[in-house]
Amino acid sequence: MTTKINMIAKFVAAQQARLDDQNNVVTDGWVDGYEVCTFLKISNRTLQRLRSSHIINYSLIRGKAYYRISEIQRLMSDNIIRCSEDKLQDLIKNHKLHVDQRRDIR
Q: Is there a contact between 75 and 56 (Cβ–Cβ < 8 Å)?
């Protein structure tokens, strides 16, 4: 029974990913500060300054800050964070891989 449920979940996730790729839609997931700093090549202190000055919206869960991908895109479009679109796409792709790996574990 569990294997069938896992197969259905994988199928649904694959179909959703395929639709998102066709429509060029970015799913609005949450990424942590480490991922943002690593893929956008900004320092942790820069991210802290953005939080302190209320320029970026975030959520704290158990002391760890999480950011919406749409919020990162907004900062890029407002030229607050200067980086290429390729870096953002790498962040999104890595986030999707991480989510898929977590689904496989369960």
A: yes
Is pTM beyond 0.85? Reply is: no
The end-to-end CA distance of the chain, in Å, is: 14
- DSSP annotation string for 37-97: HHHHT--HHHHHHHHHTT-S--EEETTEEEEEHHHHHHHHHTTSS---HHHHHHHHHHHHH
* Each residue's pLDDT expressed in tens, for the chain with a length of 106 residues: 888 888 888 888 777 766 655 544 445 778 888 888 887 788 899 899 999 999 999 999 999 999 998 888 888 878 777 666 777 777 777 767 766 666 665 5
What domains are there in the chain, each with its CATH number? Answer: 26-105 (1.10.1660)
